[in-house]
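Workshop exercise sheet. Pairs work together: one partner reads the sequence aloud, the other fills in the structure field after running the prediction. Swap roles for the next sheet.
Pair: D.N. / O.F.
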Amino acid sequence: MINVDSLTKTYGRFTALQDVSFTARPGRVTGFLGPNGAGKSTTMRVMVGLTPATSGSVTVAGRRFADLPNPGLEVGVLLDASAQHAGRTGREVLTIAVATMGLPRKRVEEMLSLVGLTPTEADRRVRDYSLGMRQRLGIATALAGDPDLLILDEPANGLDPAGIRWMRDLLRGFADRGGTVLLSSHLLGEIEVIADDIVVIGNGRIVAQGTKADLLAAAGTLVRCRDLAGLQHALAAAEVDFTPTPDAPDALRVDADPEVVGELACNYGLALAELRSADSAGLEAMFLELTADTQREGVAA
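Structure field:
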């Protein structure tokens, strides 16, 4: 289990993290989402002792990462696949990691096979690796100690569709065997497929967290109507909250069940072009709505 409790990190007057709290549980994949600069990587760096917290705490497997006697045997970490020694071969990088953890050398070949790096690729210098190959090497290093927890920052970067599918199956299998996975990614579709729980961060604060099913179900109803003013009047009269949808000028997101919205529209003689649960719009719509005030770009993208 990974437990983040009231974590705050400041750099002078700048607050990178403000009272961040969440838990990643065994047997589940926790998706950690947020716009660029939201605080995802800072949180993960604090988790593994690379960045000191200003206040608050993080425990992995019940202890601070710095207090683990042999961290690689308990926690697999991949924060930056490009941070590997460019002048060494992939096999050398993995051999050093295995030796540092006190593991038998045969573990090197087992991990290379697991992540799909061929003998020829393993003997190439890391400087000649594609980003996808570096990701595979990083995953091999993270898994070498047979840990119970994985902390991964954007592990699918650089992978082709087949590689992304491989990564998804690998992490799903790890969690299904009782492991804890904390996964940061900007590939919202992949998170939607694999995650059991979701934590959304924006401007250094948690803006939403819960099971994927609960968060998407709370999205309400999406309704489209040519007479949008009439629909807004009907909803307001019934004291039902609603918000416009920026990407669909004739649609509203309504905080009520589809049955309630449909009955209101019928009572006011309004013809609806679309009426459905907003969770079918997927994780991307929820993410953009929750982080609308924290996006760097002028429009959501």
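Discussion prompt: The mean pLDDT is 89. What would you look at next?
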